[in-house]
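Suppose you are handed a protein chain with no further information: no name, no annotation, nothing but its sequence. What can you learn? This example shows the usual starting point.
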Amino acid sequence: MEISHYFEFEDHVTGGIRESVVHQRKMLNRLDLQYTTEPDLDADIFHCNLMGPRSVWYAKRARARDIPVVANTHVTAEDFGDSFRFTNTLAKPLKPYLERAYGLADALVCPSAYNQGLIETYTDTPTTVISNGVDREKLVGFDALEDEYRERYDLESPTVFLVGHVIKRKGLETFVELARRLPDVDFAWFGPLDLSLKGRETTALIEDAPENCTFTGYVDDIRGAYAAGDIFCFPTHEENEGIALLEAMTAGKPLLVRDIETFSWLEDGEDCLKVSGSGVDGFEAALERLTDPELRRRLGSNAAARSEDFSLEAVTDQYRSLYEEVI
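A reasonable first move is to predict its three-dimensional structure. Written in structure tokens, the prediction is:
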């Protein structure tokens, strides 16, 4: 079996989609499956990760040749808004485009049950939930970087942190307001920071953030973020799964999340703390609770144990089964 494992715009797209593709290719290697990263209509399966125009073109031709088409549903109109400049404008016409594009597949891979529910309103193409997974090997030795990264960004424990692109959808307004309300606590957001891609409101939130709120920009070794951070605060409003959250769990960090459907599988008070509603007060109260080192230790330990279900080793065979089903 040979897979055409294609990632359109591979040289330009970063963040969770890129990480998912990296994980998939590691899993293909584990399965000892042959694959090419180019669109190839001589392959047994055409698997695309981003349904751009070139992917759609190849998907149509693959179907004409009876080559099974598999597509990951990383992008939805719901999570596209409040991301970068102009994405709100593009979100509305994006849904009918994705309805047609995802409809070309024989099987769709959804990273979560929540994402699956959304996609089933787009198309009747069969869906399968397969997590993006977490690469546990990527984080090996992270704790040895604690002193270096705390000193680099002038952070004191307990540091409230987040990892990923700095975008409004991920709860930027809440994160900044929490830092403003808790001036004696250090907040750090580790991730790419290109203001030329941000809208005016997002740029203002970043530029007007208080002194105890650090935006690091690109980090050369992401392990340093999990070494320097103590409480993973993720007030996102919309998420398809959240690879950074899985990484924080693997690192044994206590989670503080907004109570959205995506995170329904997390148990409040067991492996995380959840905050309902869109206000900041609940997050502030939860952070006050997390000043307790024993609570942080217990939640982090439970999160680490739970993360094992999302390891690449645990997810790999699901791709084997999917490929065997569509071939």
